[in-house]
Specification:
By secondary structure, the chain is an alpha/beta fold. It has one domain (33-49, 77-234): 3-Layer(aba) Sandwich (Rossmann fold), CATH 3.40.50.300. Helices cover 32% and strands 25% of the residues. A six-stranded mixed sheet has the order 6-7-8-3-9-10, with helices on both faces. A hairpin with a 5-residue loop joins strand 1 (7-16) and strand 2. It is globular and about 45 Å long. Adenosine-5'-triphosphate (ATP) is lined by residues 16, 18, 22, 24, 42, 44-50, 94.
């Protein structure tokens, strides 16, 4: 028997209504188990970001279901959803989603402040994360004063600081060089070390050195799933 999934999308469908009426995800099922590092790959526009948003509980599926530790998210109370957002799932957005009025360190400490951690401790932990990600000299800059790669690292620190059980990272190494990609992937690996899981949408084969599974999306469905070796033949550079 495989270990129960932390999060599981079952036949997920997600549409964007509007003039064009796009069906971005058209029946995708993925289960992420403890200690899984899943690379979500596939061409631009294949539905990776949309699927991550549904699995993270940010957007409801139009059809199908998302389960968190076996419980349908649609049946969770407001308190349970809040708990999930605060401690269960950490999200790194493709567009970072940093608050421009705040400095880098203030962005990173924010989730801890929301969780009720006092300012001194939150600041110490945020500074430690930014040191680890090589941003010690940029901590007090507003995020719009940072390069894209630096903003990406701030976004990673902000997702990881509450020590979520699963981190869903959308292109977490798209903007950084190989050295910083390793630093970020290594930081994501911390979640695996404490028996959590990582689901990372990525175009970068560098991530395959860390992933135990690859889920290959195409046109809103899972085209293939397996170990990096099994899927290697299907990967195209896009
Ligand atoms: N807000 C939106 N409104 C309408 N259509 C959208 C919206 N967001 C995404 N789409 C469409 O949904 C489909 C899937 O987009 P999505 O962003 O999930 O792809 P992706 O695999 O993450 O691509 P990329 O690799 O470029 O990040 C695309 O056809 C896209 O144009
Ligand atoms: Mg995307």
């Amino acid at each position: 028997m495989p270990e129960p999934a932390l999060v599981e999308g079952i036949d997920v469908v997600r549409r964007y209504p509007g003039a064009q009426g796009v069906i971005a995800v058209r029946g995708a099922s993925v289960a992420v188990r403890p200690r899984d590092f899943v690379a979500l790959m596939g061409p631009s526009g294949s539905g990776k970001t949309t699927f991550l948003g549904v699995l993270a509980g940010l957007d409801p599926p139009d059809d199908g279901e998302v389960k968190w530790k076996g419980r349908p998210m649609s049946s969770m109370s407001a308190d349970e959803r809040r708990e999930l957002r605060q401690h269960g799932v950490g999200v790194v957005f493709q567009s970072f989603g940093l608050l421009p009025a705040l400095s880098a360190v203030e962005n990173v400490e924010l989730p801890l402040r929301v969780n009720g951690v006092d300012l001194t401790e939150a600041r110490e932990r945020a500074e430690a994360w930014l040191h680890r990600l090589g941003l010690e000299t940029r901590m007090h800059n507003r995020t719009y004063e940072l390069s894209a790669g630096q903003q990406q690292r701030v976004a990673v620190a902000r997702a990881l600081i509450p020590e979520p059980e699963i981190v869903m990272a959308d292109e977490p190494i798209a903007e950084v060089d190989t050295e910083n990609a390793d630093i970020i992937l290594e930081a994501l690996w911390d979640v695996i070390r404490r028996d959590g899981a990582v689901l990372a949408a990525t175009h970068n084969p560098e991530a395959l050195r860390y992933a135990n599974r690859v889920v290959l999306f195409r046109d809103g469905v899972v085209e293939q799933e397996g170990t990096p070796q099994e899927v290697a033949g299907h990967l195209t550079v896009d």
